[in-house]
Amino acid sequence: MIEVKSLVKTYGHKRAVDGVSFTVRPGDILGFLGPNGAGKSTTMKMITGYIRPDAGTATVAGIDVAQDPVAVKSRIGYLPESAPAYGEMTVLEFLNFIAEVRGYRSCAERHDRVERALARTHLEPVRRQAIETLSKGYKQRVGFAQALLHEPPCLVLDEPTDGLDPNQKNEVRALIKTMAADRAVILSTHILEEVDAICNRIILISNGRVVVDETPEAFHARRPGARLDAIFRELTNADA
Amino acid sequence: MSQITPVFKREFLGYFRSPVAYVFLIVFLVASVGLAFFVGGFFKANQASLQSFFVFHPWLYLFLIPAVGMRLWAEERRGGTIELLFTLPLTTLDAVLGKFFAAWAFLALALALTFPLALTVGWLGDPDWGVIAAGYLGSALMAGAYLAVCALLSSLTKNQVIAFVLGVVVNLALVFLGWSVFNGLLSGFLPVAAVDFIANLGFIPHFDALSKGILDPRDFAYFGSVIALALTLNVVALER
Questions:
Q1: How far apart are the first and last CA of chain A?
Q2: Among candidates B50, B69, B79, which has minimal Cα distance to B138?
Q3: B14-24: b (≥16 Cβ within 10 Å) or e
């Protein structure tokens, strides 16, 4: 579903992404791990068509993002880091805007989609509130709602539980699990338990390169009995 | 191309979701009418025309339009919503045009709200309505040209203040080129043909003609070209 081949992105002298390749199939929940600055967000931005790669290709559902970015964007639900949204709009106004851009032009269809997204993300109590007045947890959920509004075959989530309290983290993880049924999901995270909780694959990126691409079980098996962050430290320090 | 509509709607209504619109409209109306009466001697001129109203527009727009244009792209970059916008299934051109037309429509609304002035002239005298209509059209076109330049400059920076200052400076240059005082200076050491050419690169000669009721296709072409060029460069700047 999502195929990434030898992606490269350079900023000045720094190679932020240095030949990253992997594939994500429907049903995969891929955990994207790595230290800050490793190239996770940059890779996701190239897949979603926000940044142009310097080399390599990113293909979603067989479509090359460099050839037909609009077609790719209509097949992806993307939650950027910090869940940006137009703060002066209410949740309802914002989701209606997204629905309209996503192609739901008839009032009835739009209403239906928006209501479903609100229900799934438990945003009904704040639907008429301006987004800038919402708490962090609610803002994150608004980001989610816009990502899954059009029921896309692929979800790309950049730190979806960042800044949420433990209860909210649980809720979001449960939501991701239900959404992932027949979708290709990539989520980047710093929270290693999240990887155990919901991911069925791990990719560890360090200094722009893929260091590890395996299942959580295989990852644990690298050092049986060790904590995840110890394995993480070992693998990323080796490259530093 | 139909993706322009949702962007347009969001932007245009967005002006009214904050005090921005109301402050701007009030300041514009007070300033434009104030200048016409207190500096232009609107009634003293004793003419059934809006000449002493239109003559100040190039100078009025110099400060007011950068205030509208500065936030077009700089705000999106600052707030991070530019990443959301450009991962939605629309082209850069859709976004540029949607935002531009929404801002232009807002300026046109501000201009239209000066209609009581026109009605007053109609009641007190017997004006040539064609000339008045041409004046409004010319002012709207000129506002579009100012705005397109400001939108381009806004797309080059994250900082709204820089966008504002650059907007004023560049538009000032374009006004100066056609300003009679500056042209007088130039004719001291340049041939008439050269001075004329330089003058016609500026806003004032083209706007003056329209506000006098002269519908010359070359003036439409001038404003159209400025707008088209600025918008094209805007798309290029965003795609880099």
A1: 32
A2: B50
A3: bbebeebbeeb
**What pLDDT, in 10s, does the model give residues B5-27?**
999 999 999 999 888 889 999 99
Question: Is 80 exceeded by the pLDDT of residue A65?
Answer: yes
Q: What secondary structure letter does DSSP report for B145?
A: H
Cα dist from A111 to A138, A150, B11, whole Å: 20, 12, 21
Verify whether the Cβ–Cβ distance A80 to B91 is below 8 Å: no
The C-alpha of A113 sits at a distance from chain B's nearest C-alpha, in angstroms, of 16
Give A38's DSSP letter. Answer: S
From the CA of A229, how many Å to the nearest CA of chain B?
31
Yes or no: say if A39 and A16 are a contact pair by the CB < 8 Å rule. Answer: yes
Instruction: Return phi, psi of residue A210, to 5°.
Output: -80, 120
Q: How many CB atoms lie within 10 A of CB A133?
A: 12
Chain A residue whose CA is closest to B76? A86
User: How far B146 CA sits from the closest chain A CA (Å)?
Assistant: 26
Residues of A in contact with B3 (CB under 8 A): 101
Q: What is the pLDDT of residues A71-124, one digit of tens each?
A: 999 999 999 998 999 999 999 999 999 999 999 989 999 999 999 999 988 899
Burial of A158 (0-12, 13-18, 19+ CB in 10 A): buried
Q: CA torsion B95→B97→B103→B106, rounded to 10°? A: -120
pTM, full prediction: 0.91
